[in-house]
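thought: user wants a sequence for this fold. calling inverse folding tool.
action: design(structure=
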């Protein structure tokens, strides 16, 4: 091939130091610190709402979903700022400092006896905004450090993403064990349970500060590429002109109206790339309920676990710790599938599952996870202890660790009524106002039944967490590969941003759903005391919605024609040739990387590209 864009050559790497060890290692450690901070914060957030802010299960879940949705929307802004104005290094640094400010503010707002809702929620959304500046940029900045014109760098780039992915999971492991335990139960000598969240959230705060220090320490070694323009703004402009400009008789597609060929403002190659994106929109839509189901691992699964037996001998597990089984499943099965199962199927059966087939399997597994969760809940309800209020000594001793006995104590309500207590017990109310000996009669005070732990072990939840983990491997990771591979290179940032946005929509979808199933106050499905609710029905409803999405997905997939990699590569090459100055790309930076990827595609080496890209994309899944 004579075109210089598709010549694959390597520079001599003799005496070239290892970029992975001397540069990228700082970014890997920074990512570990940030992910431990994020999971440590998010993993116990629902529990904080329930125990420290006295929110109901419904309100706790909805507040988490609202916040979590913003966590997955703000990366669009963070990526845009980095690509258009600040570059990745400055964006990561500025947003990391904001992240630390948010964590400090939350810790301040979580001081026992002085919890301030305004401070807590302000801090939460500062963290959501700051995470958005880091999430889309840190892994990409790590990739920027490798010059794949050198063979050593190309090899180390693949290793970088593997180490990067493991750092995420190691951060999650620390968060769901140490941080979750301290938040829920506290530490003797450091205030005990009342100060648990204050002490527990200090760990993410300190880790974030360490991460920033390490990131800054490595600054002199980093390659800091300047902003090169955002493809998202170009894609938005194409859509706007295609929608608003008058139809042209010669136009065969509504997006052609935005092409310069038909009087629009955008290069024909970009418009053609956007057409590929539009083919993917229906598939993005069916990912939304999948992410709604994935979100249950941090909400409804925890609510269920709060009223299960958390003891292992004399040790009481933190309810968030069950997420470990999700992480371990993914870490163990990803290499097993890639190195054992898929090669075995190909070699012995001649079966090579397509990307859409894998996603469909993931959807079915997600349905199965909800069905299993519903069956576990039915069993838990069957074994639930007899309902009882504060007058029952056994009920008081068996209260769910996710609830505060103070809120069910009629004596505390009486003291509050008389002005001797500052905080009103949220689960007590009056039915009369009879005063006896200068105080409200206890006969006038009614308190809800105490949410109690079942004798059913929380380890019964393992199958549903494992099924969600396997579903992620098939649906989440494969969807990242699918949306990446079905778009030309200039549109892949838009494709992945759109895929990431479905995470937010999945979180937000569950808010009206939860409100709907709780519309009858005397028959709530997601009740504050799940023994009085129908959490099993809620899980079965989610299973039904996911099954409906799977049916729609199967119908769409039946006639899907995969994009020809050669055609996509040629389109990308045409973009590179058309107007590099207009697109703001440097010949030695992004241009050089794209040149190699185009060569790999045209020479049939797509697996090499995936070895680098797919691990990177895995970081963008919901476990974030």
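)
observation: tool returned 624 residues.
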């Amino acid at each position: 091939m004579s075109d210089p864009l598709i010549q694959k050559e390597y520079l001599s790497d003799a005496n070239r130091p290892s970029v992975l060890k001397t540069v990228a290692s700082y970014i890997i450690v920074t990512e570990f610190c940030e992910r431990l901070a994020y999971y440590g914060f998010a993993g116990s957030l629902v529990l904080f709402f329930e125990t420290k802010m006295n929110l109901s299960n419904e309100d706790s879940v909805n507040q988490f979903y609202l916040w979590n949705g913003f966590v997955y929307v703000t990366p669009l802004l963070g990526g845009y700022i980095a690509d258009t104005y600040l570059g990745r290094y400055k964006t990561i640094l500025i947003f990391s400092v904001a992240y630390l400010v948010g964590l400090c503010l939350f810790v301040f707002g979580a001081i026992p006896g002085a919890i301030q809702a305004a401070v807590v929620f302000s801090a939460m959304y500062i963290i959501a905004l700051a995470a958005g500046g880091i999430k889309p940029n840190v892994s990409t900045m790590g990739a920027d450090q490798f010059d794949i014109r050198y063979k050593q760098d190309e090899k180390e780039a693949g290793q970088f993403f593997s180490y990067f992915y493991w750092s995420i999971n190691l951060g999650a492991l620390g968060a769901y064990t140490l941080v979750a335990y301290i938040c829920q139960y506290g530490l003797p000598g450091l205030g005990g349970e009342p100060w648990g969240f204050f002490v527990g959230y200090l760990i993410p705060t300190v880790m974030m500060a360490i991460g920033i220090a390490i990131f800054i320490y490595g600054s002199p070694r980093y390659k800091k590429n300047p902003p090169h323009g955002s493809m998202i703004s170009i894609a938005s402009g194409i859509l706007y002109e295609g929608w608003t400009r008058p139809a042209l008789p010669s136009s065969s597609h509504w997006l052609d109206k935005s092409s310069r060929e038909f009087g629009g403002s955008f290069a024909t190659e970009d418009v053609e790339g956007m057409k590929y994106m539009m083919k993917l929109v229906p598939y993005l839509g069916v990912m939304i309920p999948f992410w709604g189901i994935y979100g249950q691992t941090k909400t409804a699964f925890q609510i269920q676990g709060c009223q299960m037996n958390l003891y292992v001998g004399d040790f009481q597990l933190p309810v968030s710790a069950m997420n470990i089984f999700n992480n371990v499943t993914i870490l163990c099965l990803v290499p097993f599938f890639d190195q054992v199962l898929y090669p075995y199927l190909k070699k012995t059966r001649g079966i090579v599952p397509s990307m859409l087939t894998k996603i469909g399997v993931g959807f079915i597994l997600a349905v199965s996870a909800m069905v299993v969760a519903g069956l576990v809940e039915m069993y838990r309800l069957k074994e639930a202890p007899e309902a009882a209020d504060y007058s029952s000594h056994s009920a008081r001793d068996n209260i769910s660790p996710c609830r505060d006995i103070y809120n069910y104590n009629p004596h505390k309500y009486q003291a509050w009524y008389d002005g001797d207590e500052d905080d009103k017990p949220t689960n007590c109310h009056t039915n009369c106002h009879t005063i006896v000996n200068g105080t409200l009669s206890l006969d006038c005070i009614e308190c809800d039944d105490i949410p109690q732990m079942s004798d059913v072990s929380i380890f019964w939840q393992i199958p549903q967490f494992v099924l969600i983990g396997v579903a992620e491997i098939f649906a989440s990771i494969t969807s990242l590969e699918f949306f990446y591979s079905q778009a030309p290179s200039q549109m892949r940032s838009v494709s992945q941003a759109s895929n990431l946005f479905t995470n937010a929509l999945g979180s937000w979808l569950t808010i009206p759903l939860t409100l709907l199933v709780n519309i009858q106050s005397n028959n709530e499905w997601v009740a504050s005391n799940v023994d009085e609710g129908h959490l099993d029905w809620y899980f079965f409803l989610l299973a039904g919605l996911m099954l409906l999405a799977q049916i729609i997905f199967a119908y769409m997939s039946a006639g899907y024609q995969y994009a020809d990699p050669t055609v996509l590569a040629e389109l990308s090459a045409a973009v590179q040739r058309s107007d590099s100055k207009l697109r703001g790309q440097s010949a030695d930076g992004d241009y050089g990387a794209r040149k190699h990827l185009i060569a790999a595609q045209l020479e049939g080496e797509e697996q090499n590209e995936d070895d680098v890209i797919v691990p990177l994309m895995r970081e963008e899944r919901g476990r974030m």
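thought: summarizing for user.
answer: Here is the designed sequence. Strands lie at 311-312, 315-316, 428-430, 435-436, 439-440, 445-447.
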